[in-house]
Model the fold of this input.
Amino acid sequence: MAVLEENGQIQIHTENIFPIIKKAVYSGHEVFLRELVSNGVDAISKRRMAAMAGDCQEGDEGTIQIRVDRTDKTLTISDNGIGMTADEVKRYINQVAFSSAEDFLEKYKQDSEAIIGHFGLGFYSSFMVSERVEIITLSARTDSTPVRWSCDGSPNYSLTEGERNHPGTDIVLHLLEDELEYLEPSRIKTLINTYCDFMAVPVQLEGETINKMNPPWRRSARELEDQDYIDLYHYLYPFQGDPLLWVHLNTDYPYSLQGILFFPKQTGRADWEKGEIKLYCNQVFVSDSIKEVVPRYLLPLRGVLDSPDIPLNVSRSALQTDRRVRSIGQFVSKKVADKLRDLKNDNPDHYAEIWDSVAPFVKIGAMEDEKFAEQVSELILFQTTADKNTSTDLLNGNDRSYTTISAYRERQANDNQKRVLYCTDEIAQAGALTLWKGQGAEVIFAETVLDSQFIPWLESKETELTFQRVDSELDASLQDDQPELSDQEGETKSESLRTLIKKALNNDKVTVQVQALKGGSEAPAALILLPEQMRRMNDIGALMEQRLPGLPDHHILLVNRQHPLVEALLSLESGSVVIADGASSPSHQLAVDLAQHLYDLARLAVGGLEPTELGGFQARATMLMSSLLQQGT
Done:
């Protein structure tokens, strides 16, 4: 048999393809190890299938061996897979790989930053870290001869007989001087744990298996206990506590997709741009940025998606428009909705307990995805003032009651079923909230920044539905409709109060209303009211200017004439107040100061006092207390 010895030139047109590989294709050189180990796993799988077909001898259990030689500065990745003949080396290494590499780079040479670069050039990624690469291989087919292939990073190569006793392949990397970090065992272990941890084949370094293998997402959900999911979460995301819930994904048609997604406990601001879901391809880690694969509203979920059917060697823009990828995204969102629905039906109180953490995903998803909105329409909860002891359709969690909008409307009287009362700040709107609750009205809470967008969206979907904030306007049910008596000059108490307060404020932009509110002293003395549409326009303006919404210049001051403080104010203005010496004396200025203070307190309750106005408020309050003390001495 003739001795094999061949020197040749790889047939490519791009002379500088190796510099392109090194600089343009991969964002990080470290992925070469993933590519070479993946190739070894593929070779082991091919040998197993070929042996079953009787085309080659069956080997030992598949193993990837990594060896470090500090003296020679080499890193060797060995497998006991199917190996290659000389003809296969020529075909797979010299021709196919470089031809596809050239086409690949030519297609994206104007958009190198958009290349995802996963599994694009496989074996040739080794030249990113090597000055010379050798392949020593022996085919598992009968009567094969070992082959050695060598290339120094130019189109020139040599092909000779090699020395290898058992089928498989050694990839020997003669590392560049500035890439010697890959001779450190700790560095190798870190990379294997990152990229190859869940490969089905053992990866060994110095005789020690350093990958976990057996990914849980490749197993049936019936085989797993809750602790298996929790352990996986802790392994992938250390020091993050336990997940709230998880979704196990498994489908073979029309694409192959496995995975486990977790809802994390929200401990800070979620990443809605990049995300934290890890993308795998046949158990090989690819990326932790998959915003082209899953909908944006699911990006802050955590976990794993594993699919060989997601095209990786394309630009990101092409990935976003790929029909199969869009279908995968829709499948994932539907399974998330199904899981939430099952939890709400099977364990409603637990669902209520975790609602605040899952709410952003559900609300943003509903606003951005019409199909998802239909799937979660009855899963959206709001905290409510309804009594959980008297309403059987409430969900209870964390000592709070929750309701859906449809259940809320069913509990309302017929004439109020189109109106939803809501509160955005329990402290700032405490007066109005107390007033509504005192009359038996049910109020829901919408206290997040997201709700300022979500409520208008809900109204747009339900055209007959109207959301009314508790401090926007008061209807007749909150007013005491007893008629007022007029004084000798034909003026009622309300008219006298309105005149006094308008004079005290001296501000035509403030509309003063005087009414008798039910609830007596428990009802607030004064409220700032802002019509719903005006308030929303104010909130939108603040959002566009990236500031907190303040109190607009035009607003309503509602004064409760039945409150003891207001009644005392009117008595003081009429001059009937009793001074310390027993004489009756008019105290007009004091009444004016008290009226201004009443307005200041109403503004303060809704955050309507700007920081620059707090000093003036403090000065006026001090002067008022001084006047009251002087009146009392």
